[in-house]
Design brief:
The chain has helices at 3-19, 28-35, 49-60, 96-100, 114-119, 130-136, 146-149, 152-164, 170-179, 188-199, 205-214, 216-220, 223-228, 238-253, 263-267, 271-282, 299-302, 304-311, 316-335, 346-356, 360-374, 377-401, 410-417, 423-438, 444-457; strands at residues 24-26, 41-46, 63-68, 75-81, 84-90, 111-113, 138-139, 167-168. The protein is an alpha/beta fold. It has a 6-stranded mixed β-sheet with strand order 3-4-5-2-1-6.
């Protein structure tokens, strides 16, 4: 705890003493404190937290934001700075033990009186022996109707296990198996948010298998049922999806093993790695091959994947990422990136890179893991070599060229050639832009000559 954070704790303690309020640090804050991990959000509970939160925000000149206005469950966030918050939640029940008995897992069902915490003592309220489960690295559900009260907690069990590298206790897994269908009672956006947090953990393959065995995964992603029915040996068979997923996690943990350019590692890091894993799970849903040209139809009319993501209330940005990544993967597998083989088809290489752009590297990586699941070692190595050529072109030719101004614009075509806006504009501008990127057109005069030749050929 920093000196500034300690100052805020003492300010809050003085305020609680004045009002006779007993404040407790609870949940993940206590768990992370015991584990020695940093915690950006400090969770408190007490009676009448509305008054406490507002007075504390006023005292520290901070912003107080209501997170949950449900009577009896009010939650308020006091924003200390961009990386540090105090969250205050109304105590459930008449005492701290009753409150902790309504939480999700034993490792999150512990509390420490604020007075003891600031004094540096370890007076932990632990009615369900969460401290022992922390020591044994076990995720165990608190006794009672915990999963039926909030079915999302089933998914959170896997998220905590994957993030903390803990094991889920067998009886907890059994309860998930018997309750899994009730996840449908949860708001889709909450499920999606938790799913992405789960996939964002470094290694989730074993937990994904466990989730599948309990039936929870199929309840979250109903399309899994259809993938199981695909004849074995086809690229969209569920078994192959899982095999590709495992290989993908191997690559993500050691991206240097692909020998792609260094810049590629940053693109597949952070939250993008979770979306890439999701793309891997869903890449078997659409058997339609990608079109050679961008479609004029909306993605929702084309893709089962998009329909599924929309049902989970994923953001448009996430839907676009997953859809384009899968389409890039499919086209790369279908073409085997033959345009990147010697002698390189520079126009084909440019068109492929331009089509997928921001999703190119994720799509290529997904193609690599699918190829590894389907091909012999030598074929896989040949494909990896083609992938390296494409990524090298993207980072060292395509992206740098995007920082330069275009040689011709639509206004230039109107003024210079007296053209009216038409589809011909796009043909000319695309041809000139391709030549500029590839280095075959370097001046305005050369660009105008290309435009003139295209116009005369019409």
């Amino acid at each position: 705890m920093t000196e500034l954070q300690n100052k805020y704790f003492n300010t809050l303690l003085e305020q609680a003493d004045k009002t006779g309020t007993q404040l407790f640090l609870v949940g993940g804050t206590v768990r992370d404190h015991i584990l020695g991990a940093e915690c950006a959000d400090v969770d408190f509970t007490a009676k009448n937290v509305r008054a406490i939160a507002r007075e504390f925000a006023k005292e520290t000149q901070s912003t107080c934001v209501p997170l949950d206005k449900t009577p009896g469950r009010e939650t308020f966030r006091v924003v200390i700075d961009n990386n540090f918050n105090f969250d205050f939640t109304e105590m459930q029940g008449n005492c701290i033990e009753e409150d902790l008995s309504q939480r999700d897992f034993t490792i999150n069902a512990m509390a420490v009186p604020l007075k003891d915490f600031t004094a540096g003592t370890t007076n932990i309220v632990d009615p369900h022996d969460g401290k022992s489960d922390l020591k044994d690295k076990i995720v165990r559900v608190v006794p009672g109707p915990i999963f039926t009260a909030d079915p999302l907690r089933m998914l959170r069990a896997f998220r905590f296990a994957a993030t903390l590298k803990f094991a889920i206790e067998p009886e907890t897994l059994k309860k998930i198996a018997t309750t899994s269908a009730r996840i449908s009672e949860t708001a889709p956006e909450r499920i999606y948010y938790e799913l992405i947090l789960f996939l964002n953990a470094p290694r989730v393959f074993d937990f994904l298998n466990q989730m599948d065995q309990t039936g929870l995964l199929e309840c979250i992603l109903p399309a899994v049922a259809a993938l199981r029915q695909t004849p074995a040996g086809q690229s969209n068979d569920w078994t192959l999806c899982l095999e590709a997923f495992k290989t993908l996690e191997d690559y993500l943990s050691s991206p240097e093993s692909l020998s792609l350019v260094k810049e590629a590692e940053a693109i597949i890091a952070g939250r993008k790695s979770a979306l890439l894993k999701l793309s891997c799970l869903l890449q078997g849903l659409d058997t339609r091959p990608p079109e050679s040209k961008p479609s004029t139809q909306s993605a929702s009319e084309e893709s089962n994947t998009v329909s599924l993501l929309k049902s989970l209330r994923a953001s448009n940005a996430d839907i676009h990422f997953v859809f384009q990544t899968i389409q890039c993967q499919k086209e790369a597998i279908t073409t085997r990136l033959n345009f990147a083989e010697e002698p390189i088809n520079k126009s084909g290489l440019y068109q492929f890179v331009k089509k997928y752009d921001a999703e190119l590297i994720p799509g290529l990586l997904l193609a690599c893991v699918v190829s590894a699941s389907l091909s012999e070692d030598q074929e896989t190595e040949n494909f990896l070599e083609a992938t390296r050529r494409v990524s090298d072109f993207y980072f060292h030719r395509y992206l740098p060229s995007m920082k330069s101004d275009a040689l011709l614009s639509g206004n230039d075509l109107i003024r210079q050639f007296q053209l009216s806006p038409s589809p011909l504009f796009r043909v000319i501008l695309d041809r000139v832009e391709e030549g500029r990127v590839l280095g075959t057109i370097t001046t305005r005069i050369e660009a105008e000559q290309v435009a003139r030749n295209i116009i005369n050929a019409q």
